[in-house]
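Weekly modeling sync, notes
Attendees: S.R. (lead), two postdocs, one rotation student

Agenda item 3: backlog of single-chain predictions. S.R. asked that every request posted to the team notebook include the full sequence so nobody has to chase files. The rotation student volunteered to paste the first one in as an example of the format we agreed on. Action items at the bottom.

Example entry:
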Amino acid sequence: MGGGMALLFAEHGIEVSLNDPSDDNMNHVLEKAKQNNLQNQLSKHSNYEDLCKSLGAPKVFVFSLPHGKVGDSVVEGLQPYLENGDLIIDASNEHWQNTQRRQGKLVSQGVYYIGMGVSGGYQAARRGPSMCPGGEDRALDLALPLLKKVAAKDASGNPCVGRCGMGGSGHYVKMVHNGIEHGMMSAQAEAWQIMNSGLGMGYDEIGDVFERWNTEGEMKGTFLVEIGSQICKQKDSKGKHVLSTVEDKVVQDIDGSEGTGVWSSEEAIRLHVPAPTLSDAHYIRIASAFRKDRAKVKETFGGDFSRCSWSSSPEEKKQNLEDLRKAVYCAFLSAFAQGINIIDQADRENKWDIDFAAVVQIWRNGCIIRSDHITDMLSSIFKQQRREVIDRDLLHHAIIAKELKDTFPSLCRIVAKGVEKNAIIPSLGANLEWLKYSTDTNLPTQFYEAQLDFFGKHMYDLKGEETGEPVTGKHHFEWRPA
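Predicted structure, as returned to the notebook:
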C-alpha cells in the first residue's frame, strides 16, 4: 500500500522521500518509479534525521504501517525532528483510540496528526484510493488539497475524499467500512456456494451471473460483485480456474494483519448496536481460519452436514437465482444500515461531528464497498437536511424500508431453502433475523424479561405503560418467596 501511494503522489508531481526498515522495499519502489519515468520524483532515506532534512516546511509525512506499536515507535523516532505546523497523515488501518492518543501526544508540539482510512486495496493505492481523513480542522485544511489530487474520482469527477470529522473519526469510519465489507463479502460468498454446490453451476456460469448483477438492477456498479465475476472466470497458465485452488481459510483476523473486523464487532457490542450481518460474517471468518480443528470436528462427527441439490428444473433454477440476487442485495443494504448505526452511536459519544454526506461521497468510488445504487440512496438521505437534524437510522427512512420490504420474501425463501438443504448461510440467515426483530414489537424477550425478574429482581415495564426507551422498569413480581 505504501509503495503504491508513493508512486501515486509522484505521478501527480509531488516529490516523495521514502523511509522503510527494508532497503529492498525502497529499492523495489524506486525500480517501479524508473519503469514509469518517475525516478526524479523519489528518493530514499535510511534514517529519520536524513528523511526530515529532505523535506520542506511544513513537513508532511504519510504512514502506511501495521496497526499498534509500530506506529508508536515511528512517531517516537520522528519526534526530535518535528516542528510546529508539521503534518502526519496516518494512512494505516489503525485503531481509532491509538490515533486519538497520538493526536493528544503531539498537540503540545504543534504537530498535526490525521487518522485517514484508505480503501480500495493495493491496486487503488496506486491508481487512486478512497480516503477518509479525520482530525482537527486546520490539519484537514492543510491536507485536503493534496489528497484531492490523488483520490479516486466519482462519475462526475468529484474526489472521493472529504472532511470526515474530528479526532479519530477517519480511522473509525474506515474500521466500520471494513465491517460492512465483511458482511457484504460473506453474503456474496454464501450465494456463490449455493450456486456452485446447490444449483450445480460451474465457475464460469457463476461469473456470468455476477457480471449480470453488476450491470443491471440494484447491485449495478458494485465493486465486490464486479471482481466476483473475474475471480470465478480467472484461469492460470494451465487453463485451471484459480479459484478452485484456493483453500477455505481466512486468517487475517488471527495473524494480526487485519484488526478492523474484530474492532467493528467489539464496537457494535460496546455501543449496543445490533449488527449481526457484520458480526456473523466475522464468526465464519474465525471458524474458517482453524481448518485443522474443523477437520478434527468433522472426524468426530463422522462427517459434515452434507449440502443437498436445490433445483430440478430450469424454471426453479431461474427463480432461485432471482431470489438469491435479491437476498444478497438485501444483505448488502442491511450491512450499510448496521454499519452507519455503529458510526452514529460512536459519533454521539465522541462528539466528532461526522459529516455523513462526506462519508457517502468518500464511499462513491475507489473503495471496496462501492455500490452505486446504495450510495445514491444514502446521498439523498444525508444531503436533504441540515446535518444536526438528520435521522441517521436508515430503517427510519421510507426509501430504505421499501427496498428491504421488497427483497424480504426472496431472503426468506433463500434462508428457508438453505436451512432445508444445509447451505452455510451465516450472514444471510442473521440478516433475516435482524429484519424480523428490528420491525417487531412483540418479541420473545417478553418471556426473557420475566425470567430475569424471577431470579434477579431486574424489574420490568407493564404493557401499555412503558415509553420504549432502554431504561430499567418500575415493576417486580415476587414469583417465588425467598
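Discussion: group reviewed the output briefly. The chain is about 55% helix and 5% strand.
Action items: rotation student to repeat for the remaining queue; S.R. to check formatting next week.
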